[in-house]
Write the structure tokens for this entry.
Amino acid sequence: MAANEEYVVVVGGMNLDIAGLSGPVYRERDSNIGKVGMNVGGVGQNIAHNLAKLGVPTYLVTVYGDDYWGRIVEEECEKNKVLLTHAQKLAGEKSSIYLYINDHNGDLVTAINDMGILTNMTPAFLEPRLAFINEAKIVVLDCNLPKETIEWIGQNVTAPIFVDPVSVAKTDRIAGILDKIDTLKPNGYESALLTGIEVTDVDSARKAAEKLNEMGVKHVFISLGEQGILCAKDTESIVARPLAKKIVSTNGAGDTTMATIVWSRFAYGSDISLEKVGRLTQAAASINLESPLAVAPELSVEHILERMG
């Protein structure tokens, strides 16, 4: 990277993803005909990979093992231009693995995550990297990190913080730093946990977004599945509708959306309109949903702009 070049830092998890994609018929508790694939994944890594595909210099701060799987993810990151300069390979540790199965509609049926290695991402691990992190244009974190680490980031990181909650079970890890978050991308269930407002439609999502704004989050993007995404800041909110023509797999769609939100700020600045950000996210997500992979090979700035029309 050239001197003085702007960059993004992603602090989060990296897995080896093992995916089982069912054929035309899916049956519970049975052997299903389909396809099995293996790729580098993890929420943090997926976001970083998407950002790299969109031309953003991106450093992934994470940990991985010195095992067979670790060598694979290391090689894949190098190939995908995800920079691991400030990551750490841990001797004697098992790399993180995520195993999931999608049904014939591309929806997740079940999954197992083996991510114990991420407990090594402590404040003590991040402290020597803090100066580098604070020089980033944007810092992205996923809630796979330990709660104490997330709270330490909220208190010590001065660059704009963008957060992906990852899951309902991990959302409460950011409850104490909402006023430190520039941008948050929850789904309806995650929004409800933070605000106490049940999200069932666009109107209730708008109320939850307003509450999150009141709690200190500057920009809120609530994923609403088939209804699209609600984008909100201050007293303004809009809904961007989905653009996907077909759905092959939903895995990674949220990570693509988050990466697009980050890229839109990185590329267009803070004055970009909510409407444009929303349309960009839905264009990118549609490309992802039409791919069997968590990060679509077809994703690019050119293809996003084409899909927007």
